[in-house]
Amino acid sequence: MKLPDLISTGWAEIRSHKMRSFLSVFAIAIGIATFFYTLSVLSQRYRDIDRSAQISGKGRVDTFIEKPLSMDQYNMLLRTLPEGSSLSLRTGNYITNAIYKGRVLNDFAIQGVLPSFQDSAFVFDVEGRFFNWKDIENKHRVAVIIVYPRDKEKRDFTRYLFHEPGTEQTPLADLVKRVNLLNQQISINGQSFTVVGILRAPTVEKDFRIARDMEHNQYIFIPYSTWYDIIPSWRDYFETFIRVVTGSESKTGKAVSSLSSFLRSQFGSDFDPIINPFRFQLKFARQQAWINLRSMIFIGLIAMIAGGIGIMNITMAVIFSRTREIGIRRALGASRWDILFQFLVEALLLGLCGAALGMVLGYLAILHMADNADQMTFSWWVVAAAVLLALATSFVFALYPAYQASKLKPVDALKYE
């Protein structure tokens, strides 16, 4: 028989035993749905990690020290780094209040940053402007505020409630969603600042950065050099976050060596900073994504085995019920290969139906269970893998009973009642 005839015969047999066929198809579908969901989510997470790597810059290195660094030290460190490197300094959090038109604002943190803060993991839409090097050089009293959208998924922020007795206070996050503070004056620690920029953050669903780069507070940024002037009392309780982006992974080793040598020269030979190349963080993120979804793959594997066993049982039952038919076909000249292919094609049709139903169920699972379903994109290889897995399972589990059917001798088969 030709392939179209085999497909027609197999489909007719499936339709004649609807319930039996459905149970096998459904078992295959559950396994395929699990694999489709898992591979789609895993693929999306890997894509997000790759996108995070792109915006974070090649050859990125991070560390922090519990010491302040002056702008003179910044320039000294920059000269020791590989040519073309970007160097960013960021202070630790300072908790205080601000005043806007007599209204006391709280529940935010202030950080001092440099213009090079934009060179890595910067995903904000800027309204107004960000700091420039003149702001740093002249210690301008300017500020930039992050505004977060009204997310469907609530952000896991650390709350900083700084209350003064007898005053009515408003969280900064609530105010900036109602009032545009661009070019407005706010008072911080008794000094007036002009808000020169608003950073509009992406929604949680659209933010593909790794957790280390995401914000966990409501922030007001001020120039790094200005920080020293308005918060001198924090010099002895200071954290400085240092980020280097060399532009090439091949320069990472030199950057780590230069950074380590500089910090020891400034703070003593016993000073031992923890320096983290960003590629290690990306590797860890990929490993965590795989670990988190590994159990789902195991569940899918069990479901696929159950579906395969179901197909094997169906194929064996079909063979017993059609033994005389097999004998007649052999007597009329059908070869062993013809019989083998007949039952394998029928099993493959069951697997193909299971793949189609499984991908539909997997897609529905993504819509209702995935964290970033709105951003989910489906790779062709995930669809291909789901189809091939269903066909391979059907083929493997149907091969033995189909082979046994092909071995039946015409005389014995014709005598079968």
Report low-confidence residues grouped into runs of 5 or more. none
Q: Could you give the count of β-strands?
A: 14
Q: Give the % helix.
A: 40-55%
Mean of all residue-level pLDDT scores? 84
Structural class: alpha+beta
Q: Please indicate the percent range of residues in DSSP E strands (runs of 2 or more).
A: 15-25%
Structural write-up:
The protein contains twelve helices and 14 strands. It has 417 residues and is of the alpha+beta class. The chain folds into two domains: 182 residues, no CATH class; 220 residues, no CATH class. Helix 1 crosses helix 10 and helix 10 runs antiparallel to helix 11. The longest helix has 44 residues. It is elongated. The mean pLDDT is 84.
Quick overview of this protein structure:
This protein has 417 residues and is α+β, with helices and mostly antiparallel strands. The protein has twelve helices and 14 strands.
